[in-house]
Specification:
368 residues; Alpha-Beta Plaits
C-alpha cells in the first residue's frame, strides 16, 4: 500500500480521540437532564432530614436555602450541558457540580446536632456510586470519590466523637471496596465501549469509503448529492458537480507499475481534498476518475477552484518521473437537474476536453 495512504490512516487514528469524545458527549446528553431532575428532587427531599437533625432554626433555614439553590442550579446547568459541543467542557462542569454537591453535604453535616457515623458512612458509599453513575471521565470520577472520602473522614475527626476503631476501619474498607469496584467496572465498560465504537466506525467507513484513496464511494456520493441538491434548491443556492479524470494514468501503470499509479491516485485525492471545504464531497468514481460535489458554489467559483487545482497538479511531484495532468468537466445544477443528469453532463464535458488535448476544464451553466 502506498506510503501516503498510511499517513492518512495515522491522521485518522489521531482524530479518533476527538471523534470518540463527541460520541460520548452525544450519549451523555441524552439523559443528563433527566439525571439532573432526579438529583434536584433528591436534594429537595433531603431538606426533610436536615430539618430534623439541624442544630437550630437558623441552621435549618440556611441549609434549606442551600439545598434549593443547588437544585435550581442543577436544572439550569444541565439544560446548558445538553447544548454544548465539547466533551472536555462537559466533564469539567459535571465534575464541578459534583464537587459542589460534596461540599454542600459536608457543610450540612456540620450543622447536625449529633450525626450518626455509620449512617453517614452509608451515605458516603451512596455518593461514590452516584459519582460513577453520572457520565464523566474515569480519572475525574476516581478523584471526586477520593476527595469525598477524605473530606468525610476529616469531618469525622473534628465533628463526630465516640467513633470506635472497628467502626472507622469498617467504613474505610467498605468505601475503598466501593471505589475500587466502581473504578474497575467503569474502566472495563469504557474499554469495551471504545472497542465497539472503533469497530462500528470502521464498518461505517468501509461501507462508505474507497479503500485506496479514503474518499467517498459511489453510495455515499449519491447520499450526499441527494441531501445537498434538496438543500440548495430549498435555499435557492447554487451547486456544481465536477468530473475529474487523470489523463495519463494508463501510461503510468504501463511504464512504472500499478503501485506507482496507486500512489498518483492517493496523492491526487489528498491534494484535491486540501482545496475543498468540509461541506464538499470528493468521491472516487472509477479507476482514474473522481467526482467533486460542491454545494453553495457557483459555476464561476467552481472554475476558479479547478484552475487552482490544475496549477497545483502540474507543480506536484508525484514521484513517477513524468508530469501528471487532469481533465475536468463541471456543470451547475439547474431547476430540472437530477444527480444522474449532472453526472452525464459533467462526464461528457470531461471527455470532450480529453479529446481536444487533455489538461482542460470544460463547463456549462444551468441554462445551457
Amino acid at each position: 500500500m502506498p506510503r501516503v495512504h498510511d499517513e492518512t490512516m495515522i491522521v485518522r487514528s489521531e482524530d479518533l480521540h476527538t471523534a470518540y469524545g463527541a460520541y460520548k458527549l452525544r450519549t451523555a446528553q441524552n439523559y443528563i437532564y433527566i439525571l439532573a431532575i432526579i438529583a434536584s428532587v433528591f436534594s429537595v427531599l433531603l431538606i426533610i432530614c436536615d430539618l430534623n437533625f439541624a442544630n437550630n432554626q437558623s441552621s435549618r433555614l440556611v441549609v434549606a436555602l442551600i439545598r434549593y439553590a443547588y437544585a435550581i442550579l442543577l436544572i439550569f446547568v444541565s439544560g446548558w450541558l445538553t447544548r454544548i459541543k465539547s466533551f472536555s467542557i462537559y466533564t469539567i462542569v459535571v465534575s464541578l457540580l459534583e464537587l459542589v454537591s460534596v461540599a454542600i453535604s459536608l457543610y450540612v453535616l456540620t450543622q447536625y446536632a449529633s450525626p450518626n457515623f455509620m449512617i453517614q458512612s452509608m451515605g458516603l458509599v451512596a455518593t461514590v456510586l452516584v459519582i460513577y453513575l453520572v457520565p464523566n471521565r474515569m480519572p475525574y470520577q476516581l478523584a471526586l470519590s477520593l476527595v469525598s472520602a477524605l473530606g468525610f473522614y476529616a469531618f469525622t475527626c473534628f465533628y463526630i466523637s465516640n467513633v470506635t476503631m472497628n467502626e472507622m476501619l469498617a467504613s474505610v474498607v467498605y468505601t475503598l471496596i466501593a471505589i475500587i469496584l466502581c473504578t474497575v467496572s467503569v474502566y472495563n465498560s469504557e474499554k469495551n465501549q471504545l472497542r465497539e465504537y472503533i469497530a462500528k466506525n470502521r464498518l461505517e467507513q468501509m461501507s462508505s469509503t474507497d479503500f485506496l484513496t479514503n474518499t467517498a464511494n459511489r453510495f455515499r456520493l449519491e447520499e450526499e448529492a441527494d441531501r445537498w441538491m434538496n438543500f440548495c434548491r430549498r435555499q435557492k443556492l447554487p451547486l456544481c458537480l465536477v468530473f475529474v479524470d487523470v489523463d495519463n494514468l494508463k501510461q503510468i501503470n504501463d511504464s512504472f507499475g500499478h503501485a506507482a499509479g496507486d500512489t498518483v491516485l492517493v496523492t491526487l485525492s489528498a491534494l484535491m481534498q486540501k482545496q475543498l471545504r468540509n461541506s464538499d464531497t470528493i468521491s472516487r468514481w472509477g479507476g482514474d476518475e473522481f467526482v467533486l460535489l460542491l454545494p453553495n458554489v457557483s459555476l464561476e467559483n467552481a472554475i476558479a477552484l479547478l484552475e487552482r487545482l490544475k496549477t497545483l497538479v502540474l507543480k506536484t511531484d508525484f514521484g513517477v518521473g513524468i508530469a501528471v495532468t487532469c481533465s475536468f468537466g463541471v456543470v451547475e445544477m439547474g431547476e430540472s437537474s437530477s444527480f444522474q443528469s449532472l453526472l452525464h453532463e459533467a462526464d461528457a464535458l470531461m471527455y470532450s476536453g480529453k479529446r481536444d488535448g487533455k489538461d482542460t476544464i470544460r463547463y456549462t451553466g444551468p441554462e445551457e
